Amino acid sequence: MKFRLIHAEKGHHEVSLLARVLGVSRQGYYAWAARQRRGPSTRARHDAELTERIRRHHQASDEIYGAPRIHADLRELDGVRVGRKRVARLMRVAGLAGVSRRKGVRTTVTDPRARSASDLVGRDFCAEEPNRIWTADITYVPTWQGFIYLAVVLDVFSCRIVGWAMAEHMRTELVTDALAMALHQRRPEAGVIHHSDKGGAIHLDCLRSAL
C-alpha cells in the first residue's frame, strides 16, 4: 500500500521525500515499480491458468473432488503434468475443497450390554476345507442419496463371499440376513465357526435356532 501511495503522489512530491515520510526505502519503491511494469511472473501466469482448470474440474464434479481427484483429471483429461502438492496449494488459495464422504461413518457399534464371545479362531485365519471358518464384516457404499451398508460372510478356505445383504441401516437383521444367505447357499455341517471383525466367534449350531 505504501508503494502504491508513493506511485500515486510522485507527480506532486519527490519520491525520496515520500519514501522517508512513509518509512520505506526509495530503492524498494523503484524495485516494486519495475515489477509492476513487467507484470505477473511466468510462474504466476501459469498458476492462474492452472487455477482456472482446477476450478472447472471442481465445478464439473459438483464441488466434490479434492486435490487427488483433481490432480488425476488434470493428467488424464487435460494432459497437464503438475505436482499434487501444487494442485492442493492452488486449491487452498482459491478456497476450493473436496467433500469427504467417510466423515462420521461408523460400521461397528458396540452394545455395552452384550457379552463378548470367545475367540475360537485365535487369529489363525486358515482352513483346510470349505465351511470350517466363516468371517463376517460390514462396510458401506457412498451414493448420492446417502450410504448403503453391506454385510458379507466370507469362507476363509476359498476367500469367496458366501452370503451378503444390503440395507440403509446397520441393525441386527442386516447381519443375520447375510448369514441366512450363507446358510441357504452352503448348507454346512455342524462345526463351522462364524467369526466377526470384533474378534468374537460362536459355533454356527447356536445360530441355527435364531434363524
UniProtKB/TrEMBL annotation:
Pfam families: HTH_21 (PF13276), rve (PF00665). It comes from Streptosporangium oxazolinicum. Involved in the transposition of the insertion sequence. It comes from the Bacteria. Coiled coil: none annotated. Residues 126-211 form the Integrase catalytic domain. SUPFAM superfamilies: Ribonuclease H-like. NCBIfam families: transpos_IS3. This is Integrase catalytic domain-containing protein. PROSITE patterns: INTEGRASE.
